[in-house]
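U., I forgot to send this yesterday:
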Amino acid sequence: MQTIDFSYLPVRTGDLILDLGCGEGRHVFAAACHLDVNVFGVDLNKADLLSAKRKEKEVMIRDGSAAEFIVGDALCLPFEDDCFDAVICSEVLEHVRDYQSVLKEIGRVLRSGGFFCASVPRRWPEKICWALSREYHEVPGGHVHIFRTGQLRKEIENLGMRYYRRHWAHALHVPFWWLKCIFWKSQNTNLLVSLYHRMLVWDLMRQPLITRLLESLLNPFMGKSVVLYFRKDASI
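Result:
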């Protein structure tokens, strides 16, 4: 499941990309399999990184591309200044209390003229999740922020980034998370949650035209994620 649309990130052959908070590597593999780039995936969760390394043996990484996974802290990245051509930070900032420091670190390692893409949960579907279930956002590693898109955009622009595009993603996932929140304590055995999850897996694997069209129509209204794209000012 991809949140980032790489067609909006004009990377070039040989560029160095950082996926910060990469999890099990979904965007790392998307980049390395379809673009001629080198990608570093960084995450604090060692179990997720081990899973990503196992998956690496099963994916078709392009000749000339490379993927590497590193345990690292978003508040203190193990990289030199101005070393990445693009940085991705997808569904991460909502988990970090001091997300402003994470944004500063991203600005530090991104070269002048480089590209940055951030995605976070959209405000109104997220507020409903919080209202339906306290456990949803109080579990260890859960969400600690609900962002206003305009405010987050301004904070990133204040770091010398120029905003140039926005879109939404995963509208079909919104009802699934509402169901999980409603039936939080029984979500693993609840029939409605199970059936909806089965539909999402079917959609992901088969990508039928009907659900692709439906999600594209619904995304502007109820996309679960908002995705913002920036370019670092070359004068910074």
